[in-house]
Fold:
Amino acid sequence: MKTMYGRQFAAMAGMVLLSFLMLGASFATVSYQYAIREQEQALERNAGYIASFTSGYVNANGGTSWQSKEFQGYLATVAQVGGSHIMICDNSGLVLYATSGQQELSVLENRSLSPALVERVKGGSYAGMTDLDGLYAETRYLVGLPITSSGGYLQGLVLVSSDASSFSGMWRELAGIFLVTAVAVVLIAAILSSFTSMRQSKPIKEIAAAARQFGLGQLDVRVDVGKRRDEVGELAEAFNSMADSLSRSEERRSEFIANVSHELKTPMTTIAGFADGILDGTIPPDKEREYLQIISSETRRLSRLVRSMLDLSRLQSDERAAQQQFDISETLVRTLITLESKVDAARLQVDMQLPEEPVPVWGDQDAITQVCYNLLDNAIKFSRPGGTLGVSVTAKGPKATISISNEGDTIPPEELALIFDRFHKTDHSRSVDRDGVGLGLYIVKTILNSHKENITCTSENGLTKFVFTLTRA
Structure:
């Protein structure tokens, strides 16, 4: 994990540094070009002013008027304000006068410019970096313009230069600013990346640790999500949801095993005890038939339990037939006929309220028949003798509603929420439901859930009613 986040941090820092270097290089290039243009334009403006002034001054005061103190003072002022050197040359490029601020540069006077430079200046203008073939001790940025009269005659040349060291100074300042800023940006990026990496890795490490504990059987471990709402928070929430689901599955599995063990142990203990009593003579011969009947009854109950377990396993694995169209009213009638002997034994009155027309529905007919059988058998079992068994079908809208009711003891409200659980029996003493295994209503609920249908149960004033729905065909 550390290696992974170390690589991520290095990659992020490298990308930040590379981006900053590219941005800095672009900014420095643009700044340099902008400064050059500004310097060039300033020197060109100064050279233009000087050329215009010189031409006018010479025309007004004669050809040697440039030697006057007034003219030279003007040039000195312009040179001082612009921080530049100014040279006045004749048409051949001979330096007549040179000044820098208040200081005259007599060392340059009577020196000649190169013919190539003179021709370029005469041609209109010149701008570039040069030392004037050794006239300057260092390279300077120079702009040259011709001095022309109002009639267009060439009167001389003016050259204005600026120290190139100002550009190197600017570059040094830019480099210093860039270096300090780059270090600051990299440090900030490093701090933010470290903080982000730690924040991202903490819940992932917790998830990994929780997964290892899950592997050791500790199913109560959860990851602290906190107030995170990002992708890592969603991952932690998904992990906790998965952990809750696994924990509930494990609880149901443990409960299921305990219930099955209990349901199997009771009849097997009874069968073994009575069989041993018959074999060792503890049960007298005249009682043997009675106890053999009990053994037979318990054996059949074991068979029903195993069959119900197999049905439940088949339902939970979704191994059922494809849905088909069938008449739910006909299915109810056929199922009730198979239970006719139980209805007669309980002396029940049957109240059938079925539509005159068939009510076709969609579903697995065998599975829905089992639903009807379990509900009717349950209603008959818990009806009071001589009571009424109600069966009705209502077709309205896209659903058909089936109701099965019986008159008997009212189910306590706290039991209603549990009656569809596995191995749940409302009669805990089993005095009434001795033959049941506690899976009938759970199987009903499982079948209807697989059909995406609902079932409800109400029990008030001695009337218990189960109502479920099916989709009409």
Residues 2-169 form a domain with the Beta-Lactamase fold (CATH 3.30.450.20). The mean pLDDT is 80. The longest strand covers residues 154-163. The two ends are 58 Å apart (CA to CA).
